[in-house]
Amino acid sequence: MKSHIIFIKVIFYLLLTCQLTMGQSGQPFLIGEKLNYSTWFNIIKGGESSLEFVGIEEINGISTYHIRSVTESTSFFDRLYKVRDYMDSWIDTSGQFSHRFSKSIREGKYRKKYSVDFDYQAGFAISNKDRDSIPDRVQDGLSMFYYIRTLDLTVGDIHEINLFDNDSLRPFLIKVDRIESVKTPIGDMDCFVLVPYLESGKQLKNKSKVTIYLSTDQQRIPVMISNEARFGSLILKLESVKKSN
Question: What gap in Å lies between CA 66 and CA 193, rounded to an integer?
């Protein structure tokens, strides 16, 4: 089941976001919108995921977007490998970078709880176990795609991201590889095909191929994540979009 752990982590580090609408600031998010996904191992449905914009909250006097991610395995997979993963991110409303990140992970017998606050004035990331120096702006596993979605994406572009998680700063790259049409339950969608790389230029996983499909419209919805590896195909598919009331 080690392969399943890798897939779950890839989902949370690379998937992310709720539906986006453009307003006066160029990047306001619609409170209450929710993206729902199914996760598949080859032809077997293994779980369900959701990404939701909870609301606008203050963190240390700073206005932030509160984003929540949930992934749970199906009752069938619970017997083999139970997954209950919950993540929350608080993203700066003006600069699209993280101020706080927390997660509660249960994957089989593995358990982990983690939280970190980013103090940019002092230049430190402060977690429950450590205090680490950070650059001017960093992203967490949920905030990074909100940042990517604010960029003017063009095929061939390569964007660098400073990802901080588990008390470690890891710069890596996102390449805009091509545009491709993807069939979904809500219709066919043209998507930017994004490929993550480590700073050295190697793909994110040496023995797997991760591909991210992000809609080309203004909403920049993460439509699908595909992970082709030695043990088979792992795919996360968009099932529905719930709009706020």
Answer: 27
CATH numbers and ranges of domains, the chain: 2-242 (2.40.360)
One-letter identity of residue 205: K
* Among candidate residues 96, 146, 87, the one with its CA nearest the CA of residue 116: 87
Q: What is the pLDDT of residue 245?
A: 58
Q: How far is 90 from 111, CA to CA, in rounded Å?
A: 23
User: pLDDT tens across 170-184, in order?
Assistant: 888 889 999 999 998
Chain position carrying tokens 């982990």: 112
Q: pLDDT band at residue 21, thresholds of 50, 70 and 90?
A: very low
The pLDDT value given to residue 144: 84
CB 17 within 8 A of CB 222: yes
Whole-model pTM: value is 0.82
Buried/exposed code over 102-132 (b: 16+ C-beta within 10 A; e: otherwise): bbebbbeeeeeebebbbebeeeebebeeeee
